[in-house]
Specification:
heterodimer, A: 220 residues, MetI-like fold, elongated, B: 245 residues, mainly alpha, 9 helices, 0% strand
Chain lengths: 220, 245
């Protein structure tokens, strides 16, 4: 059933698509995190802005990815922008909510103690609140990364130039259900998602040894 | 012609609103496919989630399973499932059946996790007093735990349903019906009006699903717990959790 000859002849292509998959996902999560971080700080500071920010991100999250990729093609063409905009948008809801939840979880006494010690608002944020919010922030990054790795496969619908490992799934299908190629995309993309998940679990433990149980609960 | 007028023209064209390939029929297909997979996921995940929540046994296994299900890219699940589904039906096994499998895989984690956390977070004192009053385990689950946990349990079903509605579009790539057809066919035919018309329809259906089930969730909140600030309802429902589509 599996055409080993095809696999042997396409190791370079598989390696390239794996790299592309990681690259597209990392770019999406990276930009998404930068935007979410700013949005979350603004929302945590000006509480009244949190419901609209959260609701808007939630609505964007509801729109099917295939629809968003398809819609963007007629605006931004077959470019990397078309692939990245939806990837970034889908991370926002997860990351903003987790960062805000992380900041909210900081005990009021700790915040007060920081104030009492003479911390300015900025010092309190960077030295006290963010370190304590870290387990939930990393849990959010874990969810966002795994989800983005799944979504990258769908960027294959934009054009042959994208899709990471998803390219093989679509290409194999278009060749008339050429299963070897479809599996060459499907299996590594699953491995990639599970590996990223495992990596974040380890990172959670390493960064926050004191919060071992809390971090895993938050991710569930 | 710009995008807006093209989309409006496509959506208002009477030809789009009739026949086998028209909007009403595609919408019906979409809802049908989504309902079937939601029903399968409910049968598989809901009793298991309730049992885990009630007994407290198997929570780690359920969490692991849910985490695995959430990690799997839907497109990869479709591809992996094809050799198996073609054995079931040579035609549908290459189109709609593997999509169905992917949607069930996608829907199980939120249903399972919310069912067991919702039940598990019900005040243990309530459960103990029910037991003291001589209620059977089944009665406790159905009469005490489930009504209290209902909003959380429904929250899981809601996010599962929304994710399914979104993912059902992927089936169109592999030749199945539903609203995704307009996206895939529109792209293939370079017809922006059709693509955007499809986007409007499918996003509308997803948002409508979210709103409708969110309303149901609110109604399901027991009147006794509806007082503001009542802490009995855990905020566990992941806001709008992961989606593979």
């Amino acid at each position: 059933m599996i055409d080993w000859g095809w696999l042997a002849g396409h190791l370079d292509a598989i390696a390239y698509r794996t790299w592309q998959h990681v690259y597209l996902a990392a770019l999406g999560v990276g930009i998404g995190f930068a935007i979410s971080f700013v949005l979350a700080l603004v929302a945590a500071r000006y509480r009244i802005l949190y419901p609209p920010i959260s609701a808007l991100a939630g609505i964007l999250f509801t729109i099917p990815s295939l629809a968003l990729f398809a819609a963007l093609i007629s605006i931004t063409g077959f470019s990397v922008v078309t692939a990245e905009v939806p990837l970034v948008l889908y991370t926002l809801v997860i990351l903003v909510r987790n960062i805000v939840a992380g900041l909210d979880a900081v005990p009021a006494e700790v915040v007060e103690a920081a104030d009492g010690m003479g911390h300015s608002r900025r010092q309190r944020l960077w030295r006290v609140e963010l370190p304590l919010a870290l387990p939930l922030i990393v849990a959010g990054l874990r969810l966002a990364t795994v989800s983005t790795i799944g979504l990258v496969t769908i960027t294959a619908t934009i054009s042959d130039a994208f899709g990471g490992l998803g390219h093989f799934i679509l290409d194999g299908y278009h060749l008339g259900y050429f299963l070897t190629e479809m599996y060459a995309g499907a299996v590594p993309s699953i491995v990639l998602a599970l590996a990223a998940d495992a990596l974040f679990v380890r990172a959670q433990r390493r960064i926050t040894p004191w919060a071992r149980t809390r971090a895993t609960e938050a991710a569930a | 012609m710009n995008l807006l007028t093209e989309t409006a023209a496509w959506l208002t064209n009477p030809a789009q609103w009739a026949g086998q390939f028209g909007i009403p029929n595609r919408l019906l297909e979409h809802i049908l496919i989504a309902s079937i997979s939601l029903a399968i996921a409910l049968v598989l995940a809901l009793p298991a989630g309730l049992a885990v929540g009630h007994t407290g046994r198997g929570a780690a296994a359920a969490a692991g399973l849910a985490n695995l299900g959430r990690s799997l890219p839907s497109l990869a699940v479709i591809a992996i499932a094809i050799p198996v589904t073609v054995l079931v039906d040579p035609v549908l096994g290459g189109t709609v059946l593997p999509t169905l499998v992917a949607m069930v895989v996608l829907a199980i984690p939120p249903i399972l996790v919310n069912a067991y956390t919702g039940i598990a977070e019900v005040d243990r004192d309530l459960v103990e007093s029910a037991r003291g009053m001589g209620m059977r385990e089944r009665e406790i689950l159905a009469g005490i735990e489930l009504p209290i946990a209902l909003p959380v349990v429904l929250g899981g079903i809601r996010s599962a349903a929304v994710q399914i509605v979104a993912t059902a579009t992927l089936g169109a790539i592999f030749g199945s019906g539903g609203l995704g057809r307009f996206l895939v066919d529109g792209l293939a035919q370079n017809d922006d009006g059709q693509v955007w018309g499809g986007v409007v329809l499918v996003a509308g259906l997803a948002i409508a699903t979210e709103v409708a089930l969110g309303l149901l969730e609110r109604l399901a909140r027991s009147p006794g717990l509806r007082t503001p600030g009542a802490g009995a309802v855990p905020q566990m429902a992941p806001p709008s959790p992961l989606r593979g589509a």
